[in-house]
Amino acid sequence: MTTNRPLSEQLSPAPLDRDEGYRLLDLLQDPATQQTALPGLEELAPGYADWIVTTLFGGIYQRAGLSLRDRQVANLAALTALGGVDPQLTGHVRTALRVGMTRQEVIEVFVHLAPYVGVPKALAGLRVAAAALS
Fold first, then answer.
1. What is the dihedral of CA 12, 67, 52, 122, to 10 degrees?
2. In 7, 9, 57, 115, which residue has its Cα 20 to 30 A from 44's Cα atom?
3. Mean per-residue pLDDT for 3-32?
4. Could you give the number of structural domains in the chain?
């Protein structure tokens, strides 16, 4: 389908709202994840944690079109495909429960990924999920 509207008018707006980013981060992350995700990063790379929260949670997450649950399914799949990001995957498994996914649904995401990302990565994701869900 073609349109004469400029591309800028066809895109979903993605505001950068720092306050909303921190509010959403607090809503999504449990205390255990909050203690491991960003603390200490400010000393190592000043401003980097704020950039992550503002652009990701105050920007990308603010776009229309996907629910928080849908975003978590995508996050679980992407992090499993990447591999080697167990702390982030652990946090997103916990967040999946916070946005309404069941334990069974979380596990099923990893099972479903096996033919797409490979059995070893799917198994690694399942091991992370098992630890995070226990």
1. -120
2. 57
3. 86
4. 2
